[in-house]
Write a structure and sequence with these properties.
160 residues; four-stranded antiparallel sheet; 2 helices; mainly beta; Jelly Rolls
Length: 160
């Protein structure tokens, strides 16, 4: 019997330890991307969204990328209407609080809520110099009514 145990011990399969390295591919753990841009095929695509400013007629100012870029779209979403009629002005400027070049106006009645999008159709607003601003300005506020102007705005660019 000792012979059998000895023979069995010699034919025992060897235990092989294998070390598997975990590869890192830079994948995301979910659908949210915290970077303000994505780059693929040598094309950078920037996007940003912020809350509307309260108690001011400049309700939104979004800065374009630090390179010449094409504006894909911009929009504003109102979640609370004002008690007065208001005119939204979409403009570009070199500062966040001016409407140097006016591109579009949207007239809203009292209490209107919803989403208002603007996609440029001419090269005047499509091509933007580095670090310019898309400014959403509101005319027609009376006194403290500006505090009721709530929502978000966004802009999206492709870098040339």
């Amino acid at each position: 019997m000792a012979v059998l145990l000895g023979l069995f011990g010699t034919f025992r399969p060897a235990i092989v330890e294998k070390v598997i390295e975990k590869a890192s591919f830079g994948a995301l753990s979910g659908p949210d991307i915290i970077s303000p841009y994505l780059r693929w095929g040598d094309l950078a695509h920037f996007a940003t969204r912020i809350s509307l400013a309260k108690a001011t007629s400049t309700v939104c100012a979004l800065q374009s990328p630090a390179s010449t870029s094409t504006l894909v779209a911009t929009g504003l979403s109102l979640t609370t209407g004002t008690s007065t009629a208001v005119t939204l002005r979409i403009a570009t400027s070199t500062t966040a609080f001016a409407t140097t070049t006016l591109h579009q106006t949207i007239s809203l009645g009292s209490g209107v809520m919803g989403a208002f999008n603007y996609a440029p159709t001419t090269t005047v607003l499509q091509i933007m110099s580095p670090s310019q601003y898309i400014v959403w300005d509101a005319e027609g506020f009376i006194g403290a009514d500006t505090t009721k102007f709530l929502g978000t705005c966004f802009a999206e660019w492709e870098v040339l």
